[in-house]
Each structure stands twice: as structure tokens, then as C-alpha cells.
Specification:
With about 675 residues, the chain is of the alpha+beta class. It is built from 24 helices and 20 strands. The structure holds 2-(butylsulfanyl)adenosine (IVH).
């Protein structure tokens, strides 16, 4: 534990660095003063560390602590203006694990309801508030310190995508981000280089500087852009998507990539997609913003001292760190896969200490030519466990031992098996305790049967006492079995049994996912459940029935078919059923056959109805909706002001249809 005086000194140091950084970030427009050698992740980790220390030692919190004030102080060159509603910032999330916890916390606060989310790009620009009175743009204000910003109206008026006049004659205040497209940023810097002026570090600094120029003619030359993402006063105020539609009707620039996600998994998919494709956008983004859709939920969820609980930023991570490989541990998965895990010298990465990294499989180990003691470069993707992205062979000793695949399972000692062409090494022993434990852990996990009263320690104890061999045995457990265990009182035993009992009424897709069929994750389980409707129909499906499902490939179809023909699995399922597990039937998706059935469609431009409406309509017609145009795209459904996707469609000679043509297709059954 650190001594009290070190803690106090650290609090002082962090507070001062954060204040300094805030000042440079928000109050300076040139490139030099806006960095101070600190990136967003370091900054966020400093804030987190300070918050943590202040929580533990409130007596050392400084009166002007940057954690209690929203950052930044207004500059004096422009008149200041109070924000009617404070302009807050967002909490940051760096891993999907954190995101799942955030989602679980939201559901808990909403009394168990699972909300819909809106996923938006986090534009890397400058936040502004725009105030419209009687339909006219009265003022544009920067965020400043969150309660008071700078009035930069004449510069805002140079942004051609922002309306100066709107149809809504009541008072409306909207919030958004002013940004600079990369091509415009490059042009500005080219000109600055010619003029011998210092270069802007990035488009965000450049946008901030341009907004605070005293000469609006120069601001206009910089060709700023904006996206509006919130209404803070006025508007329909029922759902966030409703507000965005309204903003679009009023001709505000609303980002087209925004989607509604009905589950956190869909939101994760969106985050993954954009982390990979962000370079295809003409502007910079530094993450994704997730917002709860229903505004009544916003009111229920409220705010922390500096940010709303109903929204969060999921930040893309890019930080790397170098560490040394101490050893390679072998994990045994639920299907017997033997997965190498790197054990490393602890190192700081994105604000956390990292001592393990996933190596995926031995093909990856081979590709990296990994040796014990190697200096390795780590990177955190979206996942909590970082990965090794590079190895430095020049620092390797001549006697270093190469990492080789295992000869035996580290749990049961069975000889490891490997099929030529397969990337995995496996433990073939179906009775291997670690495999069985992993299967049960998967079965009870949140995205499978969701029995949250059971964790690894309890499973281990029950297996040690031979009360549990497989997941079906959970449904035989009695109060006496449980109450004799370590740290298990009467009440905890009841809770465990209630959790198990509740899971008897699971959905069919939960149950299929929980069975742990190779290649059948949550999404495929959902597809199978909706296609077959009942467990009986799925179990008796022939290979051809499975292969005709669009999203199911031949390997998965084969796995599913073999799984339900395996006598051990058949017995296990029979045990689940006789012990009262009753997977609920699911609605079979009714696909009306039309010329769009089975086709891949990309939506682009401003459509007369929300994208979600079109997406649902197309999916119900059996079409696949994709977000990027490729040679596999069958149709691009283009609305007004379609941009790069339309150009790409034309280049690839993909058919472009409008809403009328799409409607004709949908109404014209095959
Ligand atoms: S919503 C209560 N949505 O990210 C805060 N912010 O700290 C509401 N940003 O200050 C902000 N894109 O400058 C929101 N789609 C988006 C955004 C976005 C960029 C910025 C904004 C905000 C910061 C979060």
C-alpha cells in the first residue's frame, strides 16, 4: 500500500497535470500547446486514477479538483454565454467486457429491462451548442467549462451544412460536433507549410483553431463541417431516434452511419465494424457513442457528477507496450482446444496492468516464431486481454527456447491431438475435468442460460464432490447438496436453486447456445431457433434442412447435424428435458419470397423513412443488409445526397435502386 504522503503527492500531481492538459486541449488552438505529450487514453487513465485515489482518500481531494469540475475554462477573446443545460462529457469504455458491465448496470437500474441503444460514431472534433429562436440561428457556443462557453456564432455561420433558418419556430437548442474532413485538413496544412506557419497536429486541433479565429472569412476558407447528435431543448423528446429523425427533417446534418441496436451484442458488432473500417470515413472518429434510445430511460438513469449514465463512449485503442515473455500457459477450452496464453512481465497498457496476452493458437505462435524471454509488443484491441502483435528477434538470446505445441493436456495428461490443416491442438478426453468445467461454465454464462448465481468456485466444489459431472446435473441439485458447501448459507443455497429453476424457462436460442455446439455462437443459435421454432424440429433436421439456411455454412450444418446424432448428447438433452428444462418455442421468421430474397443490399443516402424501418423490411423479405459496398453487393438502395457508397456502387457496376423500386420489388412476390 502506498504511504499517505505519496498518495497526497500523487493526487496533487495528477490534478495539476489534468488541469494543464484540459487547458491546452480546450483553450488553445495551435498545435504546440494542445498536446503536452499526452494522448486521450493516458489522459483518461490519469482521470480514472485520480477518481480512484480521491474515493479512497477524500481528505486529500483538492478544492478545485478536475474530477469535480467539467474541464476547460473559456478563453476571453469571445463573449461568454451560459449553457441552459450543461454540456457534459461522456464516460469512456475501453473493452467489450466493460461495455457488457455497463449494459448490465443500465438494465439493473431500469429494473431488469433491456433497453435499445443508438450507436453513433464519435466524431473527433469540437462540441458546440446551437441555439435557434423563432426558427433562426441565434448563437453557436463552444462547450468551454461545461456551464459556460464562448459565443462563436459568426464562425458557426460559415459552416454550410448547418441551417441558418429552420421550419421549427419554437425554441430549439441542439448539440453536435464541428469537425474537419481529412482532405480539408491536409489542404490547410499544405498552405501553412508554404506560409512557413506551424502545422496543425490533427483535424481536431485544426477545427478547434478554426472555430476560434477572429476573422470569419478565414474560418470559411477552412471548410468546416458539422454533425448534430442531440436536442437539448425542444423537439419531440420521446426517443433519441425520434429526435434524430426530427433533426434530419429540419435539415440538420445527422450522421448517416447511426443505427439502432436492439441488443448490446448488436452494439458490439457496430463497434467492431467501425474499429476496422474507420479509415474508410472521410473524417476522424475516436470511438463509438452508445446512447439509450428511450428518453424516459434517460430521466430514470440520470447523471454522475460529470457525465450522463444513459450514454457512454467506447474508445478505440491504439496504445502499445513492450514486455517480456516469461512463460506460456495452456488453457483447456470446453471443446478440448488447447490454447496458448502468454504470461508476461507486468506492463501498463491503456491504464491497466497487463500480465497475460492471448496467443490464439499454435499457428500464431509459429508465425511469431516466439521464444521464451522474447521482447514482445502488445496491443489492446476491443477485448480486455491484449494480443502480441510483434516480437523483436534481435533481443533474443541464442539459447532461448522456442515455444512448441503441447504433447499432453495440462489438465488430464491425455496425449494432445492435432489434425493436419487444423490450427487447433486438442485434448481428446471427453471426461477431462477442465473441459467439463468449462462446458458447465459456458452453460450457466450470461449469454447462454444466464444463471448468475453460479460461478467457477461453486462449480469446482460441486465437481470435487461428484455432485456435478455435466450441466444437466445442475437440475438435480438439492438444498442439502448445496448447504454443506464452504461459504454457503441457507439463503445462498436458496438463491442458487432459484437461479437454476428460473433457467428451466429459457428461450430456445439460449438453450441451443448453452449446449456448446462447435461453431454455434449466440447469433447462430438465434438463427437456428427462429428457423426451426422447436427443439424437436431442430433435433430431427437433416443436413439438407440445415444447409438451406442462408446464414449457416456447410461446416456448421455438419456440426449441428452430428451433435444431435451423438448418443451422449442425445442422452444429455433427454436428461435436461426430464429434469424440467422447457426451452420456449420461438417465432419462426416469416419470409415472403420476393426478388430481394437472398440478395445483399446496402443502404445509403437520406431515405424518406428511418434506416431501421428499411433494414427490418429488407430482413423480413429475406435480404441481407450490409454496411459496405463490395463486389458481393446485389443492390444499393440510395436515397438523397448519397455519397461515397453510391460512387463505389457505380464503379463496381452494382445495381442502384431507389425507394420506389425497392418497394416494387418487395410487393412483387416471386
Ligand atoms: S453525445 C452528454 N454523441 O464526445 C454528452 N458526443 O465526451 C453528450 N462527441 O463532448 C455527447 N461524437 O464532443 C455525443 N455522436 C456523439 C459524439 C459526441 C463526438 C464528443 C462530444 C462530447 C464528447 C464526449
Amino acid at each position: 500500500m502506498p504511504s499517505v504522503s505519496t498518495t497526497q503527492a500523487r493526487i496533487n500531481e495528477l490534478s495539476s497535470s489534468i488541469h494543464q492538459y484540459n487547458h491546452s486541449y480546450y483553450c488553445s488552438s495551435d498545435s504546440e500547446s494542445s498536446l503536452l505529450g499526452c494522448n486521450d487514453e493516458t489522459y483518461d487513465s490519469m482521470v480514472r486514477e485520480l477518481e480512484e485515489l480521491e474515493k479512497q482518500y477524500p481528505e486529500f481531494r483538492l478544492e478545485d479538483s478536475p474530477t469535480v469540475h467539467v474541464i476547460g475554462k473559456p478563453n476571453t477573446a469571445f463573449p461568454t454565454r451560459n449553457h441552459k443545460t450543461p454540456m457534459l462529457s461522456l464516460g469512456n469504455i475501453y473493452s467489450f467486457d466493460e461495455l457488457f458491465s455497463w449494459d448490465a448496470d443500465i438494465s439493473k437500474r431500469l429494473g431488469g429491462q433491456k433497453p435499445s441503444y443508438v450507436c453513433e460514431l464519435k466524431i473527433d472534433g469540437v462540441a458546440v451548442s446551437l441555439i435557434y429562436r423563432n426558427g433562426f440561428l441565434e448563437a453557436g457556443v463552444t462547450r468551454g467549462d461545461g456551464t459556460q462557453g464562448e459565443e462563436i456564432t459568426s464562425n458557426i455561420k460559415t459552416i454550410s451544412s448547418l441551417p441558418l433558418m429552420i421550419k421549427d419556430k419554437s425554441n430549439l437548442e441542439v448539440r453536435g460536433e464541428v469537425y474537419l474532413k481529412r482532405k480539408n485538413f491536409n489542404a490547410i496544412n499544405q498552405q501553412r507549410a508554404i506560409n512557413g506557419e506551424p502545422l496543425f497536429k490533427n483535424p481536431r486541433n485544426s477545427a478547434a483553431g478554426s472555430l476560434r479565429l477572429l476573422d470569419s472569412t478565414e474560418t470559411r476558407r477552412r471548410k468546416l463541417d458539422a454533425f448534430i447528435y442531440n436536442i437539448s431543448e425542444g423537439g419531440p423528446q420521446e426517443t433519441h431516434t425520434g429526435n434524430l429523425d426530427y433533426l434530419q427533417q429540419l435539415e440538420f446534418p445527422v450522421n448517416r452511419e447511426t443505427i439502432k441496436a436492439d441488443s448490446i451484442e448488436d452494439a458490439v458488432e457496430y463497434c467492431r465494424y467501425w474499429e476496422e473500417h474507420k479509415q474508410e470515413l472521410p473524417y476522424d472518429i475516436d470511438g463509438i457513442v452508445l446512447k439509450v434510445n428511450a428518453l424516459k430511460h434517460h430521466r430514470q438513469l440520470g447523471f454522475t457528477s460529470s457525465s450522463p449514465r444513459w450514454a457512454t463512449a467506447v474508445k478505440f485503442s491504439s496504445e502499445q507496450a513492450v514486455s517480456v515473455l516469461r512463460e506460456v500457459e495452456i488453457g483447456v477450452g470446453r471443446t478440448g482446444n488447447l490454447t496458448p496464453v502468454a504470461i508476461l512481465e507486468p506492463v501498463e497498457l491503456n491504464g491497466t496492468t497487463v500480465s497475460r496476452a492471448t496467443l490464439h493458437n499454435y499457428d500464431q505462435v509459429d508465425r511469431l516464431n516466439l521464444h521464451l524471454g522474447d521482447h514482445v509488443t502488445l496491443e489492446k484491441g476491443g477485448e480486455i486481454i491484449p494480443k502480441i502483435v510483434a516480437v523483436d528477434p534481435t533481443l533474443r538470446s541464442e539459447t532461448a527456447q522456442k515455444i512448441e505445441p503441447p504433447s499432453n493436456c495440462p489438465s488430464c495428461g491425455s496425449p494432445a491431438e492435432h489434425t493436419a490443416g487444423d490450427v487447433e491442438w486438442r485434448c481428446p478426453n471427453k471426461k477431462c475435468t477442465t473441459q467439463q468445467m468449462e462446458q458447465i461454465l459456458h452453460f450457466v454464462s450470461r449469454r447462454a442460460m444466464d444463471i448468475d448465481t453460479i460461478g467457477p468456485a461453486l462449480i469446482e466444489q460441486l465437481m470435487d464432490r461428484h455432485l456435478l459431472q455435466n450441466a444437466a446435473d445442475l437440475y438435480l441439485l438439492s438444498h442439502e447438496d448445496l448447504s454443506g458447501l464452504e461459504r454457503m448459507g441457507d439463503k445462498s443455497a436458496d438463491n442458487v436453486l432459484t437461479g437454476i429453476d428460473k433457467s428451466r424457462q429459457c428461450t430456445l436460442s439460449q438453450f441451443i447456445h448453452a449446449l456448446g455446439i462447435t461453431n454455434v455462437g449466440e447469433k447462430t443459435a438465434g438463427i437456428l431457433a427462429r428457423h426451426f421454432g422447436t427443439l424437436e424440429k431442430l433435433m430431427s433436421a437433416e443436413g439438407a434442412d440445415l444447409e438451406m439456411i442462408e446464414e449457416i455454412g456447410p461446416v456448421t450444418a455438419e456440426n449441428v447435424f452430428c451433435f444431435f446424432r451423438n448418443p451422449e448428447q442425445k442422452q444429455l438433452i433427454a436428461d435436461f428435458l426430464t429434469r424440467g428444462v422447457r426451452p420456449r418455442e420461438e417465432q419462426i421468421l416469416q419470409i415472403t419470397d420476393s426478388p430481394l430474397t437472398g440478395k445483399t443490399v446496402v443502404l445509403t443516402g437520406t431515405l424518406s423513412e428511418p434506416r431501421e424501418v428499411w433494414k427490418k423490411r429488407l430482413i423480413l423479405a429475406g435480404a441481407k443488409v450490409s454496411s459496405s459496398v463490395s463486389s458481393k453487393t446485389d443492390y444499393v438502395l440510395a436515397g438523397e445526397n448519397a455519397g461515397s457508397k453510391l460512387l463505389k456502387a457505380e464503379k463496381l457496376e452494382v445495381s442502384v435502386i431507389d425507394e420506389g423500386a425497392a418497394m416494387n420489388f418487395l410487393e412483387n412476390e416471386n
